C-alpha cells in the first residue's frame, strides 16, 4: 500500500503530496500524534479507570460475565484497565495498524494477552459469532473517541453501529454520558477571527477606509471547528452575555442516532450586548450517577483546584452567522445543529419561525464570500490587527512615489489597496492560483471599495508572469506581507523570495522590495505544559507503556534530522531561558542564491529552568527602521514570561533530552546549534546540542 504525506513546498508555495516507501510506516502521524498527551492526562486516565472498575462491578453483581468492547484502543490502556478490574474478556479494536501492533506488544508486556484480543479493524468491520472477531456481543462498551468538539472524530456513527451490532441491549458504557455546554459572549478579539473589520488608513490626503464586501458580513463561514486553549484567553478579552447552559447530552449506554438533527435551548441574556460568539466545551460522566466526572470547563466556570492541562481536548469557539444585539432579560433561543461530525450555532429571537426554519438549520454552513476558505482564523486576526496595518502603511509611505508601479505577491492581500490609497500610480496583484481562488475574493474587496478598475488582478502565478500581464511596464515597487495559505512553518512564507526571484526580469533596476529582508530568530524556552505532548510516559496508571514511547521516539528520528513543528504559542505559556537570537537572514533585494547557506553557533542560557526546546520565528524588515515580528512580541518580566504574536504559529523544535539547570553555574551554560537553509528545497534543517 502506498502512503502519501502532505508537505508545504516553500519554493513553489504549493502543498505537495509525497509518496513514501513501504518502510515509512506512518512516522509523521505517529511523531505528531496525541497519544503521549492522552497518556499524560492523569485526570482523564484516573476517571476512566474508576468508571471502568465501577462498570465491571455492576455487571459482576448481576452475576454476568464481564465482556468488554474497547473501540479505538490505541495503546490498549482502557482494555488493560478493564482486565485488571476483573473483566472476563476484552475485545480491543484499533483501526490504525501501527497502533494496533503497538497494542499487541503492550498488552503482552503487561501480561494480559490471554484476556485481551486486539482486532486491527475499524469497528464497523468487526464481526460477531463463533467464527467472528468477537465470540459474542459485549456487555461493557468502553471508548475514547472524542475530540474537542466531542463528535468530530466520528464518535456518533461508531456508537450507533456498536449498539446495533456489537453490544448487548442494556450494556454498561464508560463513559456513560457526555454533555455539551455553551455560553454566549461578545468578544471583539474573537470576532476579529471571523469577519474583516473596516481598515482605516491615514493617507496624506485624509483618512481612507477599506470596507469589507457585504457578502462577507452576512457569510455563515465554514463549519470547521475553531478549537483553542480558552484558558489562555484573559477575561478582559470577552464579555459574558449568558449563563452557562446545557446544550445537549448523549447517553452512550442506549442506542445512539448519528443522523443530522438540531437542539434548541432558551437563553436569557444576563447583560445587553452584541451576541457574536458561542463558547462551548463538554464533560463526560464515567458512571450513571455522574459522580465520576471529567470536564473541559474553562477557568471561570470550573471551581475545582485540581487543574489538568491537556491539548487533545480543548474548548470550542463558534461564530454566529452575524452579530446580533441582545437585551438583558430578553427571551432568546440558541440552536445547535449538527451532522455526523460537526456542529454549528444560530440565535433565534422569536419562537414562531422555528418550524419553517428546521430544514435550513440542518444544512451546514457554506462560505459564500470565499474569505473563510482563503483566510484561516489567525489570518483574519492579522488583517484586523491595526498596529500591523500601521507598520505597512508607514513603510509604504516611505517607499511609494507618484510614478510607482506596484506589484503585490501574497495570497489575498490588502496591500495593493493600501498602496493605491497611498498614491501609487498603478497597482497589481498576483498570487498562486492552484489551490484557492484568491482572485474572486480580491475582486469582491476591490468592488466594495470602487477599486475594480484601479487595481489589476493578474490571473497567473508569479513564475508565469509575462510582460503583457504587466502591460509592458516594469515593476518599481514589489510588495508582499508575505502570507501564503499553504504555509505551515514560519519560513514557508519564504516563497515570496522565490516568487521575487522568478519575476526579476520584470523589475526596474532600482526596484524597491518590501519587505526588503527577513530574518530567522531563535530562543531557548521552558514550557509550562506543552512539553508533555512530546515527552515519554514510562508507565501510565501502573501499566508499562514504554513501547509507545519507543515507537514515538523512533518516528521522531526517522529522518536524518528532527523537524520543527508549528504551534500558536500565545496558547502555550513558556519562559525564555536565553536571549532571542538572529540566526539567518534572507535578503529579498537579491535573488535566491544557488548555494545552501548555514550557520553554527551557540546561545547562552541566562535563566535557570528546563530547556525543553527552541522556538523559531521570522521577522520582516519592511523598510528602514520598520519591522514586523511573527513571533516574540516581548519578554514581559524578569521571570522570562513571553508574549507572542497571537496571529501566527511559531516553530517549536523539541529537544530529545531535557536539561535542567537548578543554578546557573550548574550544567551547560549554552546550547550549540547548527541551522541549514537548503535553497533548492526551501527547507530549514536544524540540530541542537545541549
Ligand atoms: N483508547 C486509547 C486511545 C484513544 S485515541 C486511550 O484512551 O488512551 C482513539 C483511537 O481510536 C485512535 O487510535 C483511533 O485510530 C481509533 N479509532 C477511532 N475510531 C475508531 C473505530 N471506529 N474503530 C477502530 N478504531 C478507531
Automatic annotation (TrEMBL):
<keyword id="KW-0808">Transferase</keyword>
<dbReference type="GO" id="GO:0030154">
    <property type="term" value="P:cell differentiation"/>
</dbReference>
<dbReference type="GO" id="GO:0005737">
    <property type="term" value="C:cytoplasm"/>
</dbReference>
<feature type="domain" description="Protein arginine N-methyltransferase">
    <location>
        <begin position="516"/>
        <end position="673"/>
    </location>
</feature>
<comment type="function">
    <text>Arginine methyltransferase that can both catalyze the formation of omega-N monomethylarginine (MMA) and symmetrical dimethylarginine (sDMA), with a preference for the formation of MMA. Specifically mediates the symmetrical dimethylation of arginine residues in the small nuclear ribonucleoproteins Sm D1 (SNRPD1) and Sm D3 (SNRPD3); such methylation being required for the assembly and biogenesis of snRNP core particles. Specifically mediates the symmetric dimethylation of histone H4 'Arg-3' to form H4R3me2s.</text>
</comment>
<dbReference type="GO" id="GO:0005634">
    <property type="term" value="C:nucleus"/>
</dbReference>
<dbReference type="InterPro" id="IPR014644">
    <property type="entry name" value="MeTrfase_PRMT7"/>
</dbReference>
<keyword id="KW-0156">Chromatin regulator</keyword>
<dbReference type="Pfam" id="PF06325">
    <property type="entry name" value="PrmA"/>
</dbReference>
<dbReference type="GO" id="GO:0042054">
    <property type="term" value="F:histone methyltransferase activity"/>
</dbReference>
<feature type="domain" description="Protein arginine N-methyltransferase">
    <location>
        <begin position="176"/>
        <end position="348"/>
    </location>
</feature>
<keyword id="KW-0539">Nucleus</keyword>
<keyword id="KW-0221">Differentiation</keyword>
<dbReference type="Pfam" id="PF22528">
    <property type="entry name" value="PRMT_C"/>
</dbReference>
<dbReference type="InterPro" id="IPR025799">
    <property type="entry name" value="Arg_MeTrfase"/>
</dbReference>
<keyword id="KW-0949">S-adenosyl-L-methionine</keyword>
<keyword id="KW-0489">Methyltransferase</keyword>
<keyword id="KW-0804">Transcription</keyword>
<keyword id="KW-0963">Cytoplasm</keyword>
<dbReference type="InterPro" id="IPR055135">
    <property type="entry name" value="PRMT_dom"/>
</dbReference>
<protein>
    <recommendedName>
        <fullName>Protein arginine N-methyltransferase 7</fullName>
        <ecNumber>2.1.1.321</ecNumber>
    </recommendedName>
</protein>
<keyword id="KW-0677">Repeat</keyword>
<keyword id="KW-0805">Transcription regulation</keyword>
<dbReference type="GO" id="GO:0035241">
    <property type="term" value="F:protein-arginine omega-N monomethyltransferase activity"/>
</dbReference>
<dbReference type="InterPro" id="IPR029063">
    <property type="entry name" value="SAM-dependent_MTases_sf"/>
</dbReference>
<dbReference type="GO" id="GO:0032259">
    <property type="term" value="P:methylation"/>
</dbReference>
Amino acid at each position: 500500500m502506498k502512503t502519501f504525506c502532505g508537505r508545504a513546498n516553500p519554493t513553489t508555495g504549493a502543498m505537495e503530496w509525497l509518496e513514501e516507501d513501504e518502510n515509512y510506516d506512518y512516522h509523521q502521524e505517529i511523531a505528531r500524534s496525541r497519544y503521549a498527551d492522552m497518556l499524560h492526562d492523569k485526570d482523564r486516565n484516573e476517571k476512566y479507570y474508576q468508571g471502568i472498575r465501577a462498570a465491571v462491578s455492576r455487571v459482576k453483581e448481576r452475576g454476568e460475565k464481564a465482556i468488554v468492547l474497547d473501540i479505538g484502543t490505541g495503546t490498549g490502556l482502557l482494555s488493560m484497565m478493564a482486565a485488571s478490574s476483573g473483566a472476563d474478556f476484552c475485545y480491543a479494536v484499533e483501526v490504525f495498524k501501527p497502533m494496533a501492533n503497538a497494542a499487541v506488544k503492550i498488552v503482552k508486556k503487561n501480561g494480559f494477552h490471554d484476556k485481551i484480543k486486539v482486532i486491527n479493524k475499524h469497528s464497523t468491520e468487526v464481526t460477531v459469532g463463533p467464527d467472528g472477531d468477537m465470540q459474542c456481543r459485549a456487555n461493557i462498551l468502553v471508548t475514547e473517541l472524542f475530540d474537542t468538539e466531542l463528535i468530530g472524530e466520528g464518535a456518533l456513527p461508531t456508537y450507533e453501529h456498536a449498539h446495533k451490532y456489537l453490544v448487548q441491549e442494556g450494556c454498561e458504557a464508560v463513559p456513560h454520558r457526555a454533555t455539551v455546554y455553551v455560553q454566549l459572549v461578545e468578544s471583539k478579539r474573537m470576532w476579529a477571527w471571523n469577519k474583516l473589520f473596516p481598515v482605516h488608513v491615514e493617507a496624506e490626503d485624509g483618512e481612507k477606509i477599506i470596507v469589507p464586501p457585504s457578502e462577507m458580513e452576512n457569510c455563515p463561514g465554514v463549519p470547521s471547528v475553531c478549537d483553542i486553549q480558552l484558558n489562555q484567553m484573559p477575561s478582559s478579552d470577552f464579555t459574558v452575555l449568558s449563563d452557562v447552559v446545557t446544550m445537549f447530552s448523549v447517553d452512550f449506554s442506549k442506542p445512539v442516532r448519528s443522523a443530522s438533527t438540531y437542539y434548541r435551548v432558551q437563553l436569557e441574556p444576563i447583560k445587553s450586548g452584541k451576541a457574536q460568539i458561542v463558547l462551548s466545551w463538554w464533560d463526560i460522566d464515567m458512571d450513571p450517577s455522574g459522580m465520576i466526572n471529567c470536564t473541559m470547563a474553562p477557568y471561570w466556570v470550573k471551581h475545582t483546584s485540581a487543574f489538568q492541562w491537556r491539548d487533545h481536548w480543548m474548548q470550542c469557539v463558534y461564530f454566529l452567522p452575524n452579530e446580533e444585539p441582545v437585551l438583558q432579560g430578553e427571551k432568546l433561543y440558541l440552536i445547535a445543529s449538527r451532522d455526523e461530525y460537526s456542529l454549528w450555532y444560530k440565535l433565534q429571537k422569536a419562537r414562531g419561525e422555528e418550524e419553517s426554519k428546521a430544514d435550513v438549520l440542518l444544512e451546514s454552513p457554506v462560505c459564500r464570500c470565499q474569505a473563510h476558505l482563503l483566510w484561516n482564523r489567525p489570518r483574519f486576526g492579522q488583517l484586523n490587527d491595526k498596529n500591523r496595518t500601521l507598520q505597512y502603511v508607514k513603510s509604504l509611505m516611505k517607499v511609494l512615489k507618484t510614478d510607482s508601479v506596484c506589484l503585490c505577491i501574497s495570497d489575498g492581500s490588502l496591500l495593493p489597496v493600501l498602496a493605491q490609497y497611498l498614491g501609487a500610480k498603478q497597482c497589481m496583484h498576483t498570487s498562486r492560483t492552484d489551490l484557492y481562488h484568491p482572485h474572486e475574493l480580491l475582486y469582491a474587496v476591490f468592488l466594495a471599495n470602487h477599486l475594480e478598475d484601479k487595481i489589476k488582478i493578474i490571473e497567473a502565478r508569479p513564475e508565469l508572469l509575462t510582460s503583457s500581464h504587466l502591460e509592458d511596464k516594469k515593476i518599481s515597487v514589489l510588495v508582499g506581507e508575505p502570507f501564503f495559505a499553504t504555509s505551515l512553518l514560519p519560513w514557508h512564507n519564504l516563497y515570496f523570495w522565490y516568487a521575487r526571484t522568478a519575476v526579476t526580469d520584470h523589475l526596474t533596476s532600482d526596484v524597491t522590495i518590501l519587505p526588503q529582508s527577513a530574518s530567522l530568530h531563535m530562543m531557548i524556552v521552558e514550557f509550562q505544559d506543552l512539553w508533555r505532548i512530546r515527552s515519554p510516559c514510562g508507565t501510565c496508571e501502573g501499566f508499562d507503556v514504554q513501547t509507545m514511547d519507543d515507537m514515538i521516539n523512533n518516528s521522531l528520528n526517522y529522518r536524518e534530522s528532527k523537524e520543527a513543528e508549528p504551534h500558536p504559542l500565545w496558547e502555550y505559556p513558556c519562559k525564555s531561558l536565553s536571549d532571542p537570537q538572529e540566526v539567518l537572514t534572507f535578503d529579498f533585494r537579491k535573488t535566491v542564491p544557488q548555494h545552501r547557506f548555514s550557520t553554527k553557533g551557540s546561545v547562552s542560557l541566562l535563566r535557570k529552568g528546563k530547556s525543553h526546546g527552541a522556538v523559531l520565528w521570522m521577522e520582516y524588515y519592511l523598510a528602514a527602521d520598520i519591522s514586523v515580528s511573527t513571533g516574540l512580541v516581548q519578554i514581559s518580566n524578569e521571570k522570562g514570561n513571553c508574549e507572542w504574536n497571537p496571529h501566527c504559529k511559531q516553530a517549536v523544535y523539541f529537544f530529545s533530552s531535557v536539561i535542567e539547570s537548578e543554578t546557573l553555574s550548574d550544567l551547560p551554560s549554552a546550547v550549540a546549534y547548527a541551522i541549514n537553509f537548503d535553497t533548492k528545497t526551501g527547507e530549514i534543517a536544524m540540530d541542537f546540542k545541549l
